[in-house]
């Protein structure tokens, strides 16, 4: 299993644009971001180093081997 850690910093103007998007989409965008929280982070934040990050995303990958039964 591999783990990757990414740091993000919130930007006020991006948060305001997302709130406007929530209103104009009648809440659909908010529901979409509820299902896909990483999209919410990508829309409201900018990548930065881990020391200045407000939000951190952890991505894990699992390698699945193919087993065959004979």
UniProtKB/TrEMBL annotation:
<feature type="domain" description="P5B-type ATPase N-terminal">
    <location>
        <begin position="4"/>
        <end position="61"/>
    </location>
</feature>
<keyword id="KW-0812">Transmembrane</keyword>
<keyword id="KW-0067">ATP-binding</keyword>
<keyword id="KW-0479">Metal-binding</keyword>
<keyword id="KW-1133">Transmembrane helix</keyword>
<keyword id="KW-0472">Membrane</keyword>
<feature type="transmembrane region" description="Helical">
    <location>
        <begin position="12"/>
        <end position="35"/>
    </location>
</feature>
<dbReference type="InterPro" id="IPR047819">
    <property type="entry name" value="P5A-ATPase_N"/>
</dbReference>
<keyword id="KW-0460">Magnesium</keyword>
<comment type="similarity">
    <text>Belongs to the cation transport ATPase (P-type) (TC 3.A.3) family. Type V subfamily.</text>
</comment>
<dbReference type="Pfam" id="PF12409">
    <property type="entry name" value="P5-ATPase"/>
</dbReference>
<dbReference type="GO" id="GO:0005524">
    <property type="term" value="F:ATP binding"/>
</dbReference>
<keyword id="KW-0547">Nucleotide-binding</keyword>
<protein>
    <recommendedName>
        <fullName>Cation-transporting ATPase</fullName>
        <ecNumber>7.2.2.-</ecNumber>
    </recommendedName>
</protein>
<dbReference type="GO" id="GO:0046872">
    <property type="term" value="F:metal ion binding"/>
</dbReference>
<dbReference type="GO" id="GO:0016020">
    <property type="term" value="C:membrane"/>
</dbReference>
<dbReference type="GO" id="GO:0019829">
    <property type="term" value="F:ATPase-coupled monoatomic cation transmembrane transporter activity"/>
</dbReference>
<keyword id="KW-1278">Translocase</keyword>
